[in-house]
User: Fold these one by one.
Assistant:
Number 1:
Amino acid sequence: MSTPPFLPSVLSFWESEGFDPSGKSFLLGVSGGADSVALLELFVREVAPRWGASVAAVHVNHRLRPDAAMDQLLVEELCADRGVPLRVETLDPSARRSGQSVEMWAREQRYAAFARASARLGAGTILTAHHRDDAVETFYLRLWRGTGLAGLAGIPFRRADGVTRPLLPVDRAALRAWLRALGTPWREDASNADARIARNWVRHKWLPPLRAADPRLDEKVFRITRSVAALLPAWERWVEAEHPVEAVVEFGGIPAAWLRAGMEVEALKNCLPALGVAAPAPELTAELLRQAAGATSKIQVRVDESTVLVEKRGILVRSHSVFRRKT
């Protein structure tokens, strides 16, 4: 069985998303895990010969696990056997910023490495192997942490920077079953079993009983995420109209009245860069909205060691004078 049983559903999904691989150049992110190896096999066996697409790959060695070199070796062998150009990007974990989680650092650095590899290989669209299980896990993870409408859209098929997820409608089990039928090896990341990591807790503790109670759970949740994703463009236009960034610039900050009136988290995230907070963490936005909803007389939240967002005369502004360390 060389053709994957899930190919018809994938092609239907691609058509609905306006994804046409004909004659395109793709850079595949290949970690060595089952999902990314399935992505490699799909594009080498099906997409390249059928649609005349060209395929290259990038492997990011995060150097976070003792067996990372074995992951890299497998990817090198798979790509060499299939004649796929490969770029290996090796990261330095010691460069991680103080206080930044390992997961966040790895994610940021991985996408930066993808962009570098794409430029060096002259590849086009970057593809990652996110699938339906990932989308469902993301939905519940964001719901658990508290999210707005954009969070309920799960994983987008196509990111703002063009990174695309062609396997999004396929479940993890189907990908692995196809690899077993092909006899293609992959590597297991032992850290994926660590339930102390939030996503793994959702995967191994939260979802199994829900899936046992409703075998169609993933199908239903995925349908919800796609419906929400379709609404997002109109929602974002409304958010911008209700809380324009131009007004934040004019006021010199975010009106506290917006926050106390139940400002949506997406609107807040859209406005915070005007205060110099380019990538607001979920914890920051959650704390701002929590204080705004409570009885706190003045909103005041730390951004980093020397900077806070503080309410002054009814406007949330960036300040460098509060929480400054004494010398």
Note: The longest strand covers residues 54-61.
Number 2:
Amino acid sequence: MAEAEQKTVFDTGRQYLGGVYAKALLGATEKAGNTDNVLAELDSVVDDVLPALRNLEATLSSPRVPLEAKTGMLDRAFAGKMDSRLLNLLKVLCRNGRFDCIHAIRRAAHEQYNELRGRVEVLARSAEPLEGNTIELVRSQLQASLGRDVVLKVSVDPELIGGIVLKIGDTVYDGSVVNRLASLRENLLQKTGQQIRDQVDRFALAD
């Protein structure tokens, strides 16, 4: 199997397992009524703790490290500092050798939670930081178009010349100047190519 195909299989497997583990986590936290807090703690683990402790994720994912050592590390790092349900999930991932799914679990948990609450997450990239009024305008327009509450996450992409790029689920809506310029260039090339072909046809008919 080629490397690209292997990566696709691995990523698909992580996405599937991420959804399974996320569903189990939300099932437990919804009963306890503290899903918001647990998801915030999960975000902190993925965004803050793991990047800060570079070897931690590799150690917890490694099949060479004994399970007892992994659970001991988790207890020392998180016991009494995070919800017991989330800590138990981290230990289950280590026991099953699937700590590599932690990022997929975080994504799936947010997607499933938004679905439960009738919300949709929209990722917006802009060339420059958006002001508060602009963000609220974009959010309100999206809510009116989608008919659902919108969780809008905004980031800055200096590579965009202008405009905004929206990602809703797996669909990207590109309203950036870069995309418009690329489309314009493509249209001009197609138009020029057609003109050349028309001229060749006229010469051929003249002969």
Note: The chain has a mean pLDDT of 84.
